[in-house]
Amino acid sequence: MALSLKPRKRIGLVAHDNKKHDLVEWARFNRGMLAQHDLVATGTTGSMLGRELDLPVTCLQSGPLGGDLQVGAMIADGTIDFLVFFWDPLEPQPHDTDVKSLLRIAVVWNIPVACDRASADFMISSPLMMGAYERTVPDYTSHNDRELPGDDEMAGGGEGERALIDPSLGSIS
């Protein structure tokens, strides 16, 4: 299946604290190109970008408060076309599982992701950024339609296997 991306893309912008300055500097350098697209960013990053670029930026929650997950949901819904995510590989993040989920969902839905300045420079300067593009969207029909364990029991009301409880494990208080 293919999804037609229009020349005006919706770009997700995310940066960890130690990378916010890099992202703002990159965005300032690429302001002319970014002005031709719709920008969506997580909380603090979005506020900084809006102020520095004097461009409209849709601001979501801060990353640790759910902003990374909001961006991921927008990717899954097909409303983010391109992700620039300057993450810090040297700092542990309290919401590291959200970070991993965001990167995973971008790959699941086959959207371009730039995690550093060099990649972002190559991608934003590509002729594909300014034109229409047919993005291949993986077909997950077989995944969605797969038979789940217990489906036959749910439909037929039959008795399935019952969980065995080991009394030596004790009870939950």
- CATH fold-level assignment: Rossmann fold
State the separation between the terminal residues, measured CA to CA. Answer: 50 Å
Order of helices and strands: EEHHEHEHEHEHEHH
The tally of domains stands at 1
Shape: globular
Major β-sheet profile:
5 strands, parallel
CATH architecture: 3-Layer(aba) Sandwich
Low-confidence stretches: 168-173
- CATH superfamily caption: Methylglyoxal synthase-like domain
What's the β-strand tally?
A: 7
Count the DSSP helices.
8
Please tell me the overall pLDDT.
86
| Percentage beta strand | 15-25%
> Could you give the order of strands across the largest sheet?
4-3-2-5-6
Q: Based on helices, strands and strand pairing, what is the structural class?
A: alpha/beta
Report helical residue fraction. 25-40%
Rounded radius of gyration (Å): 21 Å
Query: For this structure, what is the CATH class?
Result: Alpha Beta
